[in-house]
Amino acid sequence: MRYVIFSRKWDSVTWESDLADTLLGLLADDYFRVEVSGTEHIPRTGPALLAANHSGAWGLDGFVLHKVLLRQLGRPVRVYASELVLRTPVLAAYARDHGVVTDDPTLGRDLLAAGELVALFPEGFAGVGKDFSQRYRLRPFGPGFATTAVLTGAPVVPVSIVGAEETYPKLGEIGALARRFGLPYFPVTTPVPLPAKWYISVGEPIHAPAAARTASFAERSAATRRLCDEVWFTVQGMVDRDRERRTTPFW
Question: CA dihedral defined by 152, 105, 135, 187, rounded to 10 degrees?
Fold first, then answer.
């Protein structure tokens, strides 16, 4: 097993990381006016697996989510991200200093066993790569997170993010540039993020049946599928609810 975890070096924080941290705080507080609710559902100690929808052409939601959770919870959050993050100046430094995980095929099994808090986006690139006309229609969740939850017994905490779709709407893509830079897609979107209003909601934990950990392979697989589906439907319902709270996407 091979995985890479970038841990924060508290005694030698780089200026790039500090800059990213400051910019994310300004974006969250003053530009996106992020409202966060339900964080009481996240355990203050012990393991939990946060599963959020993924949206917006450039995937900024992962960084904003990490920033607000770290500030409100006061405990480290290990966020899963593509290695493409490490190609991005400033954000790469933030990722290295804040425990972002870029390569772990077990999807946090060891981290959860150690009592860590893990956040991921089960839609993967399909979530951020969908066109704006398909906004807030969640793509199927990869079942890996559910397998991890079943095997570790960690609760899955559903998270809904509304606002990222309008911040960086994906209006199209440029295949030649995607191939040139080795990207899954190169979006046609706004040159700067738009000041959409963001809502981040955290739902009640969802537990896999305890018996599934020691059940047969077939029974464990069935429990994994049920958990994956339940989390998908829960997050989609939360997204639909929070969209209705907005008078317009920008207020």
Answer: 160
Summarize the confidence of residues 82-107 as an average pLDDT: 81
Q: Which residue in 15, 200, 4 sits closest to 100, CA to CA?
A: 4
State residue 123 phi and psi, 5-degree precision: -75, -25
Q: Give the separation between CA 8 and CA 83, rounded to whole angstroms.
A: 17
Higher-pLDDT residue of 138 and 100 is 138
- Cα-flanking dihedrals φ and ψ of residue 5, to 5°? -125, 125
The token pair at 127 is: 């979530």
CA pair distance 9, 85, nearest whole angstrom: 18
Q: What is the DSSP letter of 32?
A: S
Q: What is the pLDDT of residues 203-249, one digit of tens each?
A: 999 998 887 777 888 988 999 999 999 999 999 999 999 999 888 99
pLDDT digits (tens, 9 = 90+) for 26-58: 999 999 999 999 999 999 999 999 999 999 999
| Distance between CA atoms of residues 118 and 113, nearest Å | 11
Q: Which residue has the tokens 């829960």?
A: 234
Nearest of 227, 125, 231 to residue 170 by alpha carbon: 125
3-state SS of 173-190 is ECHHHHHHHCCCCCEECC
- CA–CA gap between residue 191 and residue 223 (Å, rounded): 44
Distance of alpha carbon 133 from alpha carbon 128, whole angstroms: 12
Whether 55 contacts 137, CB under 8 Å: no
Predicted local confidence at residue 125, as pLDDT: 92
This prediction's pTM: 0.90
